[in-house]
Amino acid sequence: MDLTCSPSAGVKSEDPHAAPDDPQKTSSDDPVDRTVKEESCDDDDDDSGKSRALTLIACRTFTNRLHCPPTENGGEKAYQCTQCEKSYGKPYSLNIHLRTHTGEKPYHCLECGAGFTSLGDLIKHQGLHATERPHSCAQCHMKFAKVSDLKRHRLTHTGEKPHRCAECGMSFSQLPSLKRHQQTHSGERPFRCPDCGKAFSRALILKEHQRIHSGEKPYRCAECGVVFSLKSNFKAHQRVHSGEKPYRCEQCGMSFPQTSTLVRHLRTHTGEKPFSCERCAMYFSRLSSLKRHQKVHGRGKRQET
Description:
Residues 1-49 are annotated as: Disordered. It is a single chain. This protein is of the alpha+beta class. It has a domain at 11-57. The N and C termini lie far apart (73 Å). Mean pLDDT is 73; it is low at 1-72. It has a three-stranded antiparallel β-sheet, with no helix packed on it. Strands 4-5 form a two-stranded antiparallel sheet. It has a two-stranded antiparallel sheet with strand order 6-7. It has helices spanning 23-26, 91-102, 119-130, 147-158, 175-186, 203-214, 231-242, 259-270, 287-304, and strands at 11-12, 36-41, 52-57, 79-80, 87-88, 107-108, 115-116, 135-136, 143-144, 163-164, 171-172, 191-192, 199-200, 219-220, 227-228, 247-248, 255-256, 275-276, 283-284. The protein is globular and about 65 Å long.
């Protein structure tokens, strides 16, 4: 079999005993596709009659300038973001930046399930699990490596929401939460599921949705082995083991492990009933209560027939 290797081909002869490549020459922000394919190659120059095994590796983008072709403007920032007009000198830097718009976080911490836009951020985060956490929360005794992380965490206890949406007036404790919310006003949903056609505003939400079809559950609890498809469900489950209840009701002092549980509880104080029955206009504080009620109409309809 004749294999011709061009400068752009992803063909590489692998020697298991060879020293690893110079990381500066082959470093890439995204990991190489681990899937490899072996094919035998009859070398016309080899008289031994044996076939050599060649490993075909998926093409990769090299981030070092030795491997990057020169840009048209002499290597200056030639790669521009179409979303916010920021520019970058290398394509991989632009790819990492684009994830701030799409919400994609392909790198996940096996320790806690946290997601990150770049491998560098993941490595930096993993250091937190191995380092000291001298900053402790006085209310729930959670510990943090940075004062800034502790300050953000305290907002879950105080209920302070300094980030306000100029469009509708809703407030949020975290800036990323505000940015996600602002996407709901634009109504744009460019990310469509190829399996069912449902559209989403962010790539990350689409990725989580697709796990419904694939059955993938990448988040595993180290305590009991239960697996989850959604990071939010995984983190909520971890609080079952830790007993952490960071979301506190300012009205009565009760604490809850999830924001959704706190929101449902708050309706017992406000009397809010956001779920209404279309058949009889009754209102309910919980969606589950509405669904139980709707079964009453379903039974009545069967009895009539």
